[in-house]
Amino acid sequence: MQAILGNPVVVLCGETGSGKTTQVGQFLWEAGFGDASSDNPGMVAITQPRRVAALSTSARVRNELGLAADSSLVAHRIRYSTTASPDTKLVFMTDGVLLRELAADFLLTKYSVVVVDEAHERGVNTDVLIGVLSRVAKLREKQWREGREGAKVRPPPLRLVIMSATLRVSDFAENPTLFSTPPPVLHISARQHPVTVHFARRTQHDYLAQAYKKVARIHARLPPGGVLVFCTGQNEIVSLCKRLEKKFGAKAIAARKERVDAKLRGKVEVSDDLEAEDVELGADKDLAADVDDGVYEDDEEGLESDEDMDDEAFQGLDMEEDVDEPLHVLPLYSLLATERQMQVFAEPPAGHRLVVVATNVAETAITIPNIKYVVDTGRAKERKFDHASGIQSFEVDWISKASAAQRAGRAGRTGPGHCYRLYSSAVFEQHFDQFAKPEILRMPIEGIVLTMKGMNIDAVANFPFPTPPDRDALRRAEKTLVNLGALEASEATSRVGGKITPLGQSMALFPLSPRFAKMIVAGQQHGCLPYVVAIVCALSVGDPFIREANLGDDDEVEPDADKPLSRAEIQHIRDPEIRAKEERKALRKTFYQVQQRHAALGKGSSDVFKFLSAVGAYEYAGASDAFCDSNFLRIKAMQEIHKLRQQISRIVQMTFPGVDAGFVPKLAPPNETQLKVLRQLLTAAFIDQVAIRKDLVDKTSNLSFAKVASTRGVAYRAFGIDEDLFIHPSSNLFHSSPPEFIVFNELHRTHKVWLKTITKVNPAWLPVLGRPMCTFSKPVETPAQALAAKAASNASAGTDSRTIIVVPRFGPGVGIELKPVQMTQKLVGGRWVLQ
C-alpha cells in the first residue's frame, strides 16, 4: 500500500497462490480507495482476462468481506451482465469492458485505481489497456495539478497496478516507451505448498490415453485430493470425461459392486458343501486382494510404471477395476455454459474425488479449491494467424515453460501436491519456449487499430505497446480498414497512420469486428437492420450449430446403409447395442434434416442465412433450451447471440436516433429483396476477401468448372494467397454448382486451405461495392453499349456530366477483368472524373 500511495504505477509480481487477485482489492478498499469522503473517492477496478474469473473472484471477495451474495458493494461487470450500482466500491470486470469504457470516458473519472490482473497472459486487450492507462495516469495527474493551482475541482490522480504471476515483468517495468520512469516492482512470495514434479520417462504421442491412465492410477493409489487435468480443447475434454465417468462414475461403481455381490451369491449357491464361515473368509480374501492392491499407496514408482504400457487410445485401459470411491468428473472450457463452469468451485458430493478436465482457462485466471494432483499434457490448442495471407489454423503445440510452472502451481494451493507431466524432461528443455508469444503478435489487429483510432490515437505505430506489433501487420490492418472505408486512403497507402473517417467513427462505437460494424452502419435500408444485427451477432459468437463430428459414431453410417428405423421400431429392438446403434443413425438423419431446413433460407446462396434462420426460429420458439436440443444448436452460443442482439440494438438506437431499429424479439423471414441486400452487405464487409473460381483466373489452363455439379475438388483463388482454396464441406454451397465469385469469412488450414462461411457474389456488384479496390479503363464502345451510352449522354448534353462505358478490373496489381459497366463522369477542372 505504501508503494501504491507513493507511485502512480506499481508492478506487482506474485506467484500463483500469493493471494494478489482476491486481496489487493480489499487492501485498497481498507486504505480508503472508493470511499466518497477519502482523497481517492473513485471506484477500484480490477480487470480479468476472462468472464469466469471476474465472476468467481467477485463472489469470493464478497464472501471474504462477509457481504450478502447480492451486495453491490463488490460487483462484477462483464459483457451482457453487471451488478454495479452507485454504491459499488470494488468492481471486477473483463479487460475488454474497461477498454470500451475508455472510448467513452478516456480519463476514467469514476475510478481512483485500476488493477490489471493476469498481465503475464499478454492478451491484446490487456496490452492495449496497459498502454492507454500509462497515458491516462499521466494526464490525470497533470490535470489534477493544474486544477489545484487554479482552484478547480479535478479528479485525483489515477493509480495503476499491474499484476503478473510470472517473473517476466521487464516488458512493463523496463519499457521506456511505456513508462519514462521505471515503476517499482514488488515481488510477493507465494503462500505455496511444495509441489513435486514428475516427468514421464518417455513422451507418448497419444497423450489423452496417458492422461486417462494417470488419473486412474492416482485414484487407485494415492490419498484423497482433487485432480486437475489439462487438455487442449472441448472434444478432448468431453472424450476424457465420458471415459472417466463410464469407468469411475457413481453409477459405474454401484453397478460394479452389484456384479461383485451377484458373483458372491452365485458362489454360495454352487458351494453348498462349504461352511458359511469358509465362504465369508474366502470372499473377504478375494475382495481384499482386489480392493487393496495398490490402493492409497503413495508410491511414485508405481505411478510411473504405466509409462511402459503400449495400449492404443483407451483400449485395454480398464485397470483398477475395484476402486470403491467414485469420481466426480467435471469439464471446464470457454464454450461451456457459465452455470456449469461455476460447478468446479462447489464441493463434490460426499465420498467422491473431484476430477476437473480443463483447457488452459484453469491455468492462472481461476483457482479451483482442493486440487492436490495436476496431470499436465503439456499441450495447448492455439489459433495461429498468418498476417500475410490471412490464413488461420488451429494447431496443438507445446506450451511454454512459464505455463507449465503455472499448471504445476495449481496443485500446491491447499497442501503439498504433485504434478505429473506427460512428457519427458528432455522434451521440456529442448522444445518448450521460456514464455508464450504475446497475442498481439499472433492475431489480426484491425479491430484494435480501429478502436484506438476511435480514441483519436492516430499514430498507432507510436503507441506504447508492451510489445509493439510488426509494422507490416499494422500496415495490412490499416489497408483492410481503408478497403472498408473506415480510414482515409491517401495516407494509409503511403505510411502507417491513416486518419479515421466518419464511417470509421461510427464503426468504432460497436464492440464488433470492423467488418461486422460496417454491416451495421450500412444496413439501414429496406428494413434490413434487424436482420443485419442478427447476422453479425451470430458471426461474432461463431457457428451455433453442433458439429456433425460431435454426434459420434459417424463411421457406423455408410453411404449405402439401410434407411434408419422409426422410433417405434427402435423401441422393439431387444439387443441394447443394436438399439443404441439404430438410435444414433436416426439421430444423424434428424441432424441432416434440420440442417437442410435451415439452409433453405436464401436458396443456399449464403452460409450466413442458415445462421439467420436458426436465430429467427430460436426467438419464435421463446429462446428455449428445448429448441436448441431439437435443432442441434449450442445452448450457450444461442444465449450469447440473444444477449448480443439486445446490446447491439441498444447501441444502434443511441447512435442513430432516427432509425427504427429497436430489439425485435421475433423476426419474420426476410423477403427476396432483403436477402439480396443482405448478400450485398456481406460482400461490402468482406470486399477484400473475394475468392474467384480458378478457371476464370488461370486462362492458360484447360480447367473448366462451369458445368460441374458440386464444388468438391473445385479450386478457388484469392488475392495475396498463392495457393488453391476449397469450399469447406460444411458449406451450403458444397453440394451445388460452383459459383464464379464468393466472399469468405475465414480461411482455415488443415491438409487443404478451406473457405468457410461463404456467400455467393454477383460480380456486377464489385465495381460499386469495392470501388477502392477497382481500376477502370478509358471509355470504351461496344455496339449495344455505345447506343445506350450515347442516349444517356444526349440526355445530359450541355451539362458537366456524361455517361460512359468502362471496363473495371478488380483487385490489387493487374486484378481480374470484369464485364463492362456504365458509369458517370463529371467535368472537374477541365478533366472528366469518374463518379
Automatic annotation (TrEMBL):
Enzyme Commission (EC) number: 3.6.4.13
What UniProt keywords are attached to this protein's entry? ATP-binding, Helicase, Hydrolase, Nucleotide-binding, Nucleus, RNA-binding
Family according to the record: Belongs to the DEAD box helicase family. DEAH subfamily.
Q: Which domain of life is it from?
A: Eukaryota
Q: Which reaction does it catalyse?
A: ATP + H2O = ADP + phosphate + H(+)
**Organism field:** Rhodotorula graminis (strain WP1)
What are the residue boundaries of the Helicase C-terminal domain, all occurrences included? 207-456
- Residue span(s) of domain Helicase ATP-binding: 1-185
GO CC field: nucleolus; ribonucleoprotein complex
Catalytic EC class: hydrolase
Tell me where in or outside the cell this protein is found.
Answer: Nucleus, Nucleolus
Pfam families xrefs: DEAD (PF00270), HA2_C (PF21010), Helicase_C (PF00271), OB_NTP_bind (PF07717), WHD_HA2 (PF04408)
UniProt name for this protein:
RNA helicase
